[in-house]
Specification:
homotetramer, mainly alpha, Tetracycline Repressor, domain 2, 11 helices, 0% strand, DNA-binding
Chain lengths: 220, 220, 220, 220
DNA sequence: CATGAATGAGTATTCATTCAT
DNA sequence: TATGAATGAATACTCATTCAT
């Protein structure tokens, strides 16, 4: 017995955290597969090989369990996107990287879309944690503004308001993951990203048409 | 005795359809407000001033009631968009009109977004009627291809594949209505439409950047 | 138009009775097939091609409808047995005839057994109309006593108390029809009657054993 | 810390079986008194002093509860009859004993007749467990054949086919218990057994009549 | 700490019966 | 008199949560 070993059952300070994550991982599939109401706590406990009582020791209500589940998933999403963005320096490349990481995340974990749907369906009173997460994060906001400003200053982006660009891009991505998930249509990640970039970056109009429209809109 | 008079209580031929619609309208709000599981049939009947039994005479199960509710909403959406498109002739104006009508519909009836979420959350086994509706409609598909082809032929649209344009546009709209609904951020319909058109039509890049990228991508 | 024909819609005095019987006939199968609770009044009306309201004009409650249904069936049974008994003169032949008619009736209308079961299962508070019918009929009772007395007086039947004979015979027949119906075993009417007569008339014991037992029972 | 002590609430291994039986006993009276459909699960729980949920933990559906109830009753009947038969050696005495035990069982537990009726009334699709039980039991069948064969070989029973004897006896007993229960006529167990034995063993006919009939049937 | 037996609130659905026409 | 639309009482079953051990 080592000199530092205390008598009695050793306390494993990580046990709690490890088990917590185990529970959340299984809960994510369970919720995604069965919906919130049909996700049976008993089944969760069974799949984990622990008792229902123990699950409730970690998460005092089913609702909090669900909240933690989605929270964890969105943290992972955030992490993936941040990591991808940090790998490159060029502002445009950062946008590329962020979008690709975002799409890739939901491509690999489609059940997270399901969780986002469930959250809204079951807990309308609470704000969606997805949007909540975005709104609260002023730091990210600032970063985005900087990237946009740089791209505009460098003459690479048209002078589109940062907020407008973010909102259209955000909605497009949001719609894309939902649509991928719910239409059942299988779409390759790469093709999809390419199509998306093509339109968002280049627009649909030809230069000729754009010029014509500019004349009409601002005649002077 | 009138020749046409049958014995018994005379049937009011419109009664059925009228009541059916009344029920669906109230059901739409009820489902949207409370979610599927928490929408109490008794409350529905009470709000309608009829008995629960009558509700079940019209819709044999709660699920069928829900299905009819969303079906009706999507029919109305379809109708609004079609009507808007038919009002103008220019292909580009048709696209404008469709997008605007779509956004306007969900702006006026935000609870329909809720219904779409609920449908997915509760009935994962069935295909979402929203996408089902799109998939089945070959005629609409053909119309869209024609509009795109015309615009490209006229030199107004870049030679973007019709399918790609539709999918990006569709995802963007889909994401927009969800995002509007779920973020809680109030956004003016007009501003939003303007921002959306600006980016989708003109793209984010400047012409200079576009030229530069074209050089890099296809050096020759 | 005949001289006796009154103006206006002629009253058909039999219509009521005819329709009543139609209803009862259909009701008998319906009850037998579905059980009392699962027999749907609406289905009854549909099968009859009339409206539910009309059924309730003839029988003010479902319960009374059921009672009338079984009453009619038992009247028919009574009629069949009486007719068979009246065809022959010899007292023993009358017993034969009655038993055979009884078995034949239930062989042809097995659903009546079902009705008898249902009556007991659903209306325990009421006395079974089958037994009620027997108890009330003093005339039949008298007739049976006379037949037994004659057979005993003629030295054809042992001096078995009439009541005992009737009760054992009655129970045996009752058990036979139930058993036929519920065991699902197909048994030919003739074989069954033959076996039944053999044992009831001749007994199981040999004469030798009977003599031996008589010695033991009444030693003196 | 004891070596065998597992964490958590210790399981009482008999608790389950004990409670199961308690539930079945109360359920038997409840079903018999109220019929299947009118037997309220809540009332059952109340009478047991437990919650409805607990009842459903033991029997997942009302139907399975009912099936278990009748199963238990018929097992007890089987047990009583077998025990009575095993007490005596003489084959004829075994028959006596079996019949008496059978009648005594239903005399003491008349509600079991009610259950048998209910089973048929409510679950026509399933075979009655009463007959099912008989059909499946080849061993009993063999035993009965042996007893009959012995009695015939010993010259105590006429050469009646075993199957015929069993079927008539079975039907008679079946009819007797039903008739007892449903006629409402109170009949003493002893008198009834005596009358039944008298007729089944000795038959109704006198020897003279029997001889006469034998002449007629087989003239030679 | 872990267990799992017990709880009990919550709800869709059926169908005999009524009654306006 | 016949019709059939409307009624509403009545009830099995689930599952998150508790708590004795």
């Amino acid at each position: 017995m080592s000199a530092t070993r205390k008598p009695g059952r050793p306390v494993d300070p990580d046990l709690h955290e490890r088990r917590r994550k185990q529970i959340l991982d299984v809960a994510a599939s369970l919720f995604a597969e069965n919906g919130y109401a049909n996700a049976d706590t008993q089944k969760l406990a069974d799949e984990l090989g622990i008792s229902k009582g123990t699950v409730f020791r970690y998460f005092p209500t089913k609702r909090e369990l669900f909240a933690a589940t989605i929270e964890r998933a969105l943290e992972q999403l955030q992490h993936d996107v941040d990591a991808a963005v940090d790998l490159v320096d060029d502002p445009l490349a950062k946008i590329f990287a962020a979008i690709t990481a975002y799409l890739r995340y939901f491509d690999r974990r489609p059940e997270v879309v399901e969780l986002m749907i469930l959250e809204r369906a079951e807990f309308k009173d609470r704000k969606s944690s997805y949007f909540d997460r975005h709104d609260k994060c002023d730091e990210k906001d600032e970063r985005w503004r900087l990237i946009m400003a740089t791209l505009v200053a460098d003459g690479r982006f048209r002078a589109v308001p940062a907020e407008r660009a973010r909102s259209v891009l955000g909605d497009l991505l949001y719609g894309t993951i939902f649509s991928n998930h719910m239409s059942g249509r299988p779409r390759s990640l790469e093709e999809q990203a390419e199509g998306l970039f093509d339109i968002i970056f280049n627009g649909l109009l030809t230069e000729a048409e754009r010029a014509r429209r500019a004349d009409v809109d601002q005649p002077e």
